[in-house]
Specification:
By secondary structure, the chain is an alpha+beta fold. It has five helices and seven strands; from the N terminus they run E-E-E-H-H-E-E-H-E-E-H-H. Strand 6 and strand 7 (86-88) form a beta hairpin. It starts with a strand and ends in an 11-residue tail after the last helix.
Length: 138
């Protein structure tokens, strides 16, 4: 199972966070855990090319982590605050809305990469309404 974003409740702080669950099932980074306010503003203004350069991860942060943060910041997902451990929300519902936006941004980005890697004939066929069969790879 690939890494995925999940909502976790930090009982001692009474807040919800969005945290990576790693492929092996162990907890990973919390969104915003290594960022400060300036970093968040910088990520919000980045383009896809800034975040993901020539198929290589940016040295500063993981591509998907940055896409998720950018989506939350640009969609004005009202997080409670940025704490030492990351972005946090008062309610599960608010965190779920942010999680959904983050996952949509990541999915859209990956679909764009997949399309960019297609041969020209397949791109032309797609633009003319052709649908790739499930599991089809060029």
């Amino acid at each position: 199972m690939p890494d995925k974003l999940t909502i976790q409740y930090y009982e001692t702080d009474g807040v919800y966070v969005i945290q990576w669950e790693l492929e092996d099932g162990k907890p990973g980074a919390v969104l915003g855990d290594d960022e400060n306010e300036e970093d968040l503003k910088e990520i919000a203004s980045m383009t896809d090319e800034d975040i993901h350069y020539n198929g290589e991860m940016n040295d500063f942060f993981d591509t998907e982590h940055a896409l998720a943060i950018r989506s939350i910041m640009n969609n004005k997902m009202n997080f409670l605050e940025l704490r030492d451990f990351g972005l946090c929300w008062h309610s599960h519902n608010a965190a779920q809305i942010a999680l959904d936006a983050a996952n949509q941004a990541i999915e859209k980005f990956h679909k764009g990469i997949e399309t960019a890697l297609l041969p020209e004939w397949a791109k032309t066929a797609l633009s003319n309404g052709w649908k790739m069969p499930d599991g089809w790879k060029p």
